[in-house]
Restriction endonuclease type IV Mrr domain-containing protein (Gottfriedia solisilvae), 191 residues
Amino acid sequence: MARRRSKKQEKAIDELLSYLTIGIGVYIYYLTNSISTSVLITSLLFICLIAFMFIKKSIRNERLRQSGINEIDKMDGVAFEKYLKELFVKMGYSVKLTSVTGDYGADLILEKNNKKIVVQAKRYSKSVGIKAVQEVKSAMSHYKAREAWVVSNSFYTQAAINLAKSNNVRLIDRKELIEQSLAIKNASKNK
């Protein structure tokens, strides 16, 4: 899957387009030596640029709405685990929820093609740290799993990302969760 641009990168691109539009206006003035022509064309370009940014933002907001991420953000931890269970079932996994307490570091156990995966679910408003990675990694041996995942509606600290890499733990962050939710919803619409 291709990496998405960060908000900072998106803002930089939007600023670059704005400066480019102004530059085109100056260039048109240089070519025509007419202020009214350059102002008219620059104004039209700005209107097109603003319309483009508005449409882009509207599409992004619609994707977020369709993904259900706003509802996920309002869930408690148990509801989030149940949501993930339904999501993974729709993805073809057989899913077992572990007990709320004494789960040995895994909230869900997935199985598909004779491969067992332990999942730590983190419904957070802040970045998820290394504790989740440590817990799910220890759950692998307890549940005799071949893979370990941490799934969150948020993002991960750099320390968690580094630890996950060195321990072969898959991190599913907010962006990937949105993509998976949309893919499942689109697949069910097409049936």
Summary: The chain has two domains: 7-67, 70-189.
